[in-house]
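tool_call predict_complex ligand=6-O-phosphono-beta-D-fructofuranose
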Amino acid sequence: MSPSKTNTIKNIAVLCSGGDSPGMNCAIRAVVRTAIGDGLNVYGIKRGFAGLLEGSFEKMDASSVGNIIQHGGTILQTSRCPEFHEPETRKEAFHILNRKNIDALIVIGGNGSYNGAFKLNEEHGFPVIGIPGTIDNDIEGTDYSIGFDSAVQTAVEAVDKIRDTAHSHARNFIVEVMGRKSPAIALHVGVCTGAENIIFPSKEVDYEQISKDIVRGIKRGKSSSIIICAEGEEPGLSYKIQEELKKSAGIETHVCILGHIQRGGNPSAIDRFVASRMGYVAVKAILEGNYPVATAYVQGEVMPIPLKDSLGKKRDYLPHFVDLARALSI
Ligand code: F6P
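tool_result ok
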């Protein structure tokens, strides 16, 4: 952190990186308007780090972020940029930022994006701030990342609809939700939809237990059941589980993979509120010369924390939710 740079900051840039998440627009809006209010120039970088490398910078004003607070996706667009793992690429990015006279960079994204931003600072001393934006809610150091609540709500609404038809036809469904390396969406959706079981890849699937739960439900008059499954490394894990349940217990299931529907849609009020607070805190941190930091949601407060404390993935993400869902679905 370098307080001495405070008064040298005149131009800042903001980008979104990695998977989009509902509420990113609210964060962009908050960054742009807070910065302009504080006398800074703000540039939006299109398509994340890939756009940075292409020099895709656009000056933003207060109107450029008008009427976006309610929209999902990101007006700046985003990308995954594997090239940014290379030191040479980051060096080039540093030179581009310098040529564009950018004094600090705000990166809205998840774990991979934070790593790129951190290295840019570590290797070149470039001032960076992270804002957690990922539906996976799996960033270390913050209780919350922008988009999680909206994604969970979208999935819950979808499962409620599936529940209607599952009940009408007396069927069992496996509903696969997003979260490549994170069980967070599955765990929350499972509890909120009264699922009979939740499966996430880092835990061995207990087919015997799943069949027991389904049979127990049938005995007490249930005609359908819902199993929520986190996608894991790649979508499609549900089909393996479907096959195994049929083979081991003769249980028939239907599979529904919700997929990218969970990343779109209007941000919830929670996402709008947290994103607005984070965008504001990010700019204030820059003005105070406080970087590299990430904005974090800790016990209801939004605050800057050292970026290095936010680099890892959350550990031990409440696996007892699986037991909770089963306990409540007897
Ligand atoms: O952004 C996080 C996430 O939505 C994960 O939940 C999901 O596994 C992954 O991104 C999908 O990424 P892509 O859209 O690049 O296939």
